[in-house]
Amino acid sequence: MSLSTHLPVxxxxxxxxxxxxxxxxxxxxxxxxxxxxxWYDKLKKPTWTPPKRAFGPVWTALYSGxxxxxxxxxxxxGGFTLxxxxxxxxxxxxxxxxxxxxxxxxxxxxxxxxISVLSGAVIAxxxxxxxxxxxxxxxxxxYVAWMGLATALTHYIWKNNPNxxxxxxxxxxxx
Length: 175
Fold this sequence. Notes:
Main location: membrane
CATH superfamily: TspO/MBR protein
Membrane topology: Multi-pass membrane protein
Pfam families: TspO_MBR
CATH topology: Ferritin
Radius of gyration: 18 Å
Helix content: over 70%
Organism: Eumeta variegata (Bagworm moth)
Transmembrane segments: 6-28, 54-74, 80-98, 110-130, 136-158
Low-confidence stretches: 167-175
C-alpha cells in the first residue's frame, strides 16, 4: 500500500487533533503552568474532576477515535455523505468552540449551554455513524461518555463559581 492510500485515514485522524492542539496551546498555557496556581486551579470543582494531566491524552484518543470513525463513514459511503459527515463537522466545530468560551471568555453559563448543544450533536453524530458503520458508531461511544462527564463538570463549575468577568456592583449584588 502506498502513502496515498493511507492519506485519507491519516488526514481524518489528524484533522480533529489540529483544533484540539491549537486550542490547547492558545488557551491552556496558563492552566499548564507549574508552581503558580492558575484561575482554573482556584475554581470549586467536584471530587470526581479528572486530573489536569489526563485531559491531553484523553482528548488525543477521543479526537483520533472520532477521526477514524469519520473515515470509516466516508469510506463506507464512497465519499462525503450529507447527514453523517455534516453532523460530524458540526459537532467538531462546536467541540472546538467550547474551549475559547470556557477558558478564553470564562463564561461558565455560556460554556454550559454550548456543551449541552455539543453533547446533543455528538449523540446525533454517533447514531448517524452507527447507521452507516457499526464500528464507526462504537468508536464514538467513549466520546459520548466523556461528553457526559464534561457536561456535568461544566455545569458544576458554572453553578459553584462566580463568573470571573462579572461585576457584582454592576449586577446589583453586594460584594
